[in-house]
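pinging the channel bc i need a second pair of eyes. not urgent but kinda urgent?? the chain im working w is below, pasted from the shared doc
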Amino acid sequence: MKHLLFLLLFALPTVWLPAQKYIKSSLAFHFQAEAVQNKIGESFYYGKPGFIPSKEYAALWFRGVAKEKYPAAQYNLAVCHFFGEGTAQDKDSAVYLFRTAALQGVPEAQYNLSLCYFFGEGVKRDSAKAVSWYKKATRKKELSEMQDWKTEAEQNGGDASHLYKRVIGKDTPILDNIWVLNAIGEAFQKGTSNFPQDEKRAVYWFRLAAERMNSKAFSNLGYSLFYGSGVEQNKDSAVYYFRLAARKDITPAQCNLALCYYFGEGVIQNNDSVLYWYKKAAQHRSAIARNNLGYCYEAGIGTPQRPEQAEQHYKLAAMQGNTHAQFNLAGLYAENHQYQESLEWLQKAAEKGYIPAEKAMKALKEGNKYTYIPKGLRYGLEKSPLTPNIQIISDEEENPDTQ
């Protein structure tokens, strides 16, 4: 493990002093090496202060310490494999690592393994195993209101009982978790091998979860109402649900609410609210929020124009791979006659297939002058990520009693 540590110390010259502090701590206290290296990976994953945001570096650190059978790192590497973040997407490997960590008692791994079995992600769908791992994760007994929930579902739709039996196969305590109700809605909204795409069914499950005060369901229901997907379009109601979710720190809802305020959709146009909600979402490291916040500072939306702040937020989003931010940053540099920096970011966006950037690069190759690149907000509402609700965990989160 020390050899890996020295290798990465020289391979990552862009790590700042705080990262070096973690590395020195790892060398000085070798018995804590696995925890420290997992923490470094987590810091790269989230782009914490002193670390460049890089899923590739994060996966590299997680993989190194996961080989040492450190459960938190095995779990975190499973997350990277599940979503294809910093490494090739491989849900089979993700399930293997979830199971390895779950067997060592990591509750997040047990819970997400239960969801993989429940939705058939990376493993054959198996309700019994889903229930078994769910019980281990939550340490709860089957709730008595499960029968009440089933009765209510049957009363609210002709095919609800059929769907309930087809998807789950039998009464399962996994559905006492309202998050799973929302997750079924998301599966129907997107369409998977086990859940055919059906917007109406998606809305049905979102409503069940929203009635039980699930914040993510508020956001998803708002999305459906805004576009009239599976339900009659109602932008006023959409804003109502976005606001409920945004107040609970659901990042896509915060971005969507800001966008509604910007265009005056379902609510009175208000630039101060645009800035407020993009700031909130940017605190969660949302690349879209950071890009749009940068545009607010550049164009003076809800604030005096502040080009330095605009550049800062554009760059943060651009480094996360957001092509709109890369394009906006290129435009900002071009206006400041920083053509070399502008060209670098324009090329990055064009290489990822961002059409406006491709057009600008084509114009340059044809000999046109490098003058103005149009900028703007990234528009279009965000959907919440599809299930499972898997996040990187730190050692503090995994073992709160040991801190």
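so The first helix runs from residue 2 to 11. and Confidence is low (pLDDT under 50) at residues 1-18, 23-31, 140-176, 383-403. — does that match what u expected or am i reading it wrong
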